[in-house]
Structures are given as C-alpha cells and as structure tokens.
Amino acid sequence: MLVGVGRFGRHHLRVLKMLADQGQIILEGAVVKTPEKQARIANEFQVPVFTEIPIALLQKVDGVVVATPMDTHFSIVNTCLEYANVLVEKPLAMNTADAKLLESKARQRNRVLMVAHTYRFHPMVEKLQSLLGTEDGLPYRIEGQFVNPANTDSNENPSLDHLHFFDVIDFLFKKTPLSVHCNASGRAHTVSLRYPENMDAILKLGWNGDAKKRTLEFFYRDKSIRCDFIQNTIDVICGGENRRIEVNSTVEPLEKELRLYIQLLQGNAAPEHYPDAVVGSRILDVALKAQPLQTEHKPRVAIIGGGIFGANCAIKLAAFCDVTMFERNNDILGEASFVNQYRHHWGYHYPRSAETVRDIQRAMESFESLYQSAIVRNFPTYYGVAKDGSKVSAEDYVRFCREHNLPFTLEYPDPRYLDPNQVSVCLKTMEPIYDYTRLKSLVHSYLTQEKNIHIELGSNVIGGQLLADGRKELLVQSNGNSSARTFDFIINATYANHNTFPDWFGFPKKEVRIDLVEALIVRLPIPHISLAVMDGPFTNLVPTGENGVFTLVHIKESILKRFVPSDGLVPPGLQVSSNAKKIVEKSKEWFPILEQAELLESRYVFRCVNANREHDDARPSDITRHGFGCFSILGGKILNSVRVAQELAEEIRGYTSTPSAATPVALVNGFAQPSADLNVRRSLMDPPDRPQIVEDPQAIR
Ligand SMILES: Cc1cc2nc3c(=O)[nH]c(=O)nc-3n(C[C@H](O)[C@H](O)[C@H](O)COP(=O)(O)OP(=O)(O)OC[C@H]3O[C@@H](n4cnc5c(N)ncnc54)[C@H](O)[C@@H]3O)c2cc1C
Predict the structure, then answer these.
(1) Where would a tag sit more exposed on the chain, N or C end, judged by fewer CB atoms within 10 A?
(2) Pocket around ligand 1: residues whose beta carbon is below 6 Å from it?
(3) pTM greater than 0.85
C-alpha cells in the first residue's frame, strides 16, 4: 500500500504499478487526502484509492510505502509500523528523538523500516563507489551543488529537503561529520562539513537561480573527480588530462530501491548499503545540524591581521557585524602595508598580466572613494623598457598600455634621472602614490568611528579550531596570557603568514612564493619623480609622501631570500645581512642621480605571492573560501583592499540578513532543531498544492 500520491508519491505509484503488472507485488491501493484526488488517481492508475489509511487493509499488507510531506512522516510511520513494514521517503522524521523512537519501534516489532535515500541506488553513485574505492586515502575536499531553480521552491527547509549528498558521502566514505556549519543566503544553504581525517565537504543546497544543478566534485592531491548527475557523466581530471565516463543504466534508482524493499519483505538478508532506520537517523541528524545558527547577537567576525586588507574588512563589516581585529604588533599597518613602494598602481607595472590590470581597474573607484585625500598626484612617473634582458619588448609594452587604456606620452626624463642609452622606450605617465602617513590616519579614523570594531593590538593569534556546531575558536596571546575566543566568521588577512591559518584549521594551503625583501629609504635633493625599469631584474625609485624621501627597490638585489616552502609557511629564524650597498650600486647604473642619495634606512619585509606565476608576474588579490564561514585574503595591491573587503562584506551580509528558510529552526545545545511548530502532526497525507517541480526522468529529486 502506498500512502501519499504527491509530487514524489506519483513516481512510487508508477513504479509500484509496474511491479504489480509484472506480478512482483500485489498493489492493494493508495491513500490520498481529498475525494477529488481520490477520483483522479483512481482513474489515472486504475488502483483502489482511499482518503484515510484503511486499518483493516493495513493489518493485511506486508509493506507500506510512505511518501507524504516530511512533517507527517513520524505519525504515519508510527501508525503503520504497528501492523506492517515501512519504506518512508526521506527524512525519516523531523527531529532525532522521533527518528530514534521509530528506529526502536521497528526493532521491537521486528519490522523492516527503510528510508528512501534513493541516491544510494543511483548508477552514478554505484560507479563512484567503484572508482573511489581504488583511490589511496580520502579526498581532502568535496564540493557539491544540489540546487533547484528558485521558481520551483517547495518552501521546505533546504538542508532537510535536499539532504541527498549528506547521504551519498555517508554511503561512499562511511564517515560521520565532526563539525557542521551552515550559512543561509536567500533560499540556499551553504553547508560545510568536517569529517574525520580532515575531509571537508562544502555543499550548496536549496533553491537559487534558473538552473537545476546536481554536481559533486572530489578533490584529491593529484586529481579531481567531477560528477554531473544531470548529464550522468564523471570526469576524472589528472595531470591536465580529462577522462570522461558516461554512466548509463536502464533501471531507474527508484525501481532498484523498491525492488530491494520487496526482497526485504520476502525475508531476504539486507545488503550492506541498505538505508535502514539507523542510516535514516544518522542522515537526519546531519541535516538538522546543517541549519544556520540563530543567534541573539550580531554575527561575530574575527579578522586576523591589521594591515590594509584586514582594516578595510573591519570597516566594511562593522555595519552589521561585531568585529574584532587582532594585530600582533602594537600598531596597525606596520608590515607589508608599511614596507612597500606606495604606488597607487594603474597597471603599468604588470605588462604581462592583463588579469592584474583588470583587477586594479575594477578596484580603483572603491579605494579612491575612501582614500582620495591620501593619494599624491601631479608628478611624473616614468616607465622605461630595458634595451637588454626585458621580458617585454618596447612595442609590446606600448601596445599593452594602449590596449588597457593606460594614458602616457613617449617622453624621457632628464638623463641624470634615467640613462636613456639603456632603455628602448620611455613612457611618461601620471601614476600617483599614497602618502602612507595620511593613509594610515584615514584608516585609523574610519576604524575608531565604528563602535562595532574592537581593535586588539599586541594580540597574536596562535591557533584555532572548528567547534562541532561550526563556530570557530581562536587562541589569542596577549600580554603573556592566552585566551580562547569564539566567532561565527573568520577572515585571515595575515599576508606573509597566509598559510598559518589554514594550517591550524586543516584547510588546504595555498602554494605561495615568499621573498624576504630589503627596501631602502633614501633622501635625494630632487622633486617628486617616480622611475621604473621594465621588465625584469631591474630597479624602481618611487617618491614617498615626504618631500625628498624615496623608496628604492631593486628587483634582483633587494631579494635577500626567495622560497616556495613545501609547507607554505614562512621559515622561522632567518638570518640575513643588508645588501643596501649593492642595491644602490646596481640601481645607479640606471638612475645616475643616485650618486647624490643618502641612505636613511633599510626596511625588511616578507612579500607573499602566488607561486608559479613567474611567467606573467600576476598579482591579483584573491579570496579563498574555506567553507565554515572562514576566508583568507591574499592581497596583491593596496588599492584592491576596499573592493575585496566589499566583496566579502556582501557575501557575509547575504548569509546573515536573509531568513534562512521557511522552516523555523531553534537551537538546542548549540545545534539547530526544528521548532515545536514542526512537530504538529498533520493527519494525512498529500503535500499541499505547490509549484510543480520538473522531475528528473529517473525520478530522483
Ligand atoms: C617590496 C614590496 C613593494 C610593494 N609595493 C607596492 C606598491 O607600490 N603598491 C601596492 O599597491 N602594493 C605594493 N606591494 C604589495 C602590498 O604591500 C601588499 O599587497 C599589501 O600591503 C598587503 O596588505 P595586507 O594587509 O594583506 O598585509 P600586511 O600589511 O602585511 O598586514 C598583515 C598583518 O597581519 C598581522 N599578522 C600576521 N600574523 C598574525 C597573527 N597570527 N596574529 C595577529 N596578527 C597577525 C601582521 O602583523 C600584519 O600587520 C608591495 C609589497 C612589497 C613586499
């Protein structure tokens, strides 16, 4: 007997009818909610249809299939188990206590209680099982999307209604998550799950956009395996090669599932992968934990690093978050945001990376809207292309600048500044610089205007971990004391220490190149002028906000150490000695004026860039989304800091301001639980009229 002939019950009825026609079962009837539907279904499927569960019939049948709205599962299954075995659509119940009750009732009555985790019977999952079985170890990350178009929203809870991939991971890896975190944005949940052995899964579930998406991607160190459950394809991508597997099956998953149920009713032994009530309870438990945290307070955000990127994130997030910015030094903007050449880049410096120029151009307006008064303009900036050894030719350089609308005139400065015999072309531009002191004072005033920003100086973050409910704990050392602090979101803006944070949390690290750079501060009796020799191991002289004071960085001689560390971390205890003399000597070959330079200071800084980008020297600013509400920023250029902060703030605002789901969820012991309202049992049976979901041909949602 089938109870419920709604959007998915219809598929059950179709397959049960087919099995009945084949003589595999006797289909005693179906139960619906209204007399109208009773007549319609009886006419369409030619089976007896009832509007109440007929108890006399229930006592007679071997098994019942329950495909009613999820909030009726408990009461209907509870009734049916008194008399018969049950296959129930997922989820088993609406809370773990009810699921456990059903589980123990089935055990006491010696009944089959199977939960329709149909993806276990999907040919793609069967193929994946054999494919992944040959891998050494676990993937370090799984990404998936189980999304239906927004206009098909059935008003259910995204993580409860679309819990299939929790089950697929459970089935494939036999693992239960240790930590579950969920952010809601509109009607979609982004669920992050941490499994044993640091296997993370980041799943987008719910209703969003126009397209239906069913994808799962498994990332291993040496390969990725990408599955599309709509196309029924699996791509194995390894070493630049893509091997495609087309997965076909003539038997639909629902039929396989129902055939297994029939075998169990006939007393056959249950196979290992059989989704019984224990599995159903386990998957329900994950889905219930995968609910957005409902907190009384504003979302608590920790920003690690008080450089220009961290500070701007704090400024942008303060409107709707409670922000704590940890800076290990006793002042903000003391490391790379201080030791650099203060160029307000327009793009001339990156003639081999259109990506970097685009990144700069789309960031310009946002930065200038906040920091206009820190920008020093109206002095000439010359870019010469070296005659010998340049990675870009004079023609290509000029073409690149024209193509990217970078204004210039072809003009040389006084030969005392730049030796014209050594360059094949020279462009005069009006690229500005920042005045560091004014920039810092503006940042400081924005930060202190916001009462939601707590700046903790002299606070070194030394560790961290994910908590079971998806919140994050940071270990902070300050004034010789350590304390553990808990946050909803974390932004890692530590630049050279970029990989320390993922190291604590077991997230994949970024492959970075780290340079220890010596930047010289020199005094020269000349007006503001900026000089650069492109594009290779040459040199740069750039004015600062202070008249007659310049930064001098030689692309080769200023690099005291360079490494791509295998662990991604800054090597401890480096000992270096100054190379200032050689930096000046080698730079003089280009800029004769340096004869008059007075060396004021050597400043040392770690530069951190994406590894393996020597070919184009690209410096975009990127955001890594680790999942679990954790982000890392690798800042390429100072002017990107506001755009990156805005992008992150918009993303976090999306997660925090929208109602998460139609299903209300409350917290119990730190975990989200459906509210009491959800446990109001509806009598029976069919789903209310909802927007029709376009069903998969293979009857699997
Ligand atoms: C030699 C050189 C020249 C450059 N020239 C230019 C230029 O002309 N124009 C331009 O736009 N860009 C330039 N850059 C790039 C620019 O400096 C960086 O992109 C930018 O400063 C990065 O800012 P940030 O906030 O990410 O890093 P930072 O300013 O380094 O800030 C990171 C902060 O994190 C703190 N921190 C780290 N670990 C912890 C922890 N565990 N706990 C608490 N605090 C922590 C650090 O103390 C630091 O203050 C240059 C870079 C270098 C190295």
Answers:
(1) C
(2) 304-310, 326-329, 334-337, 340-343, 345, 460-461, 493-495, 497, 517, 519, 553, 605, 607, 635-639
(3) yes
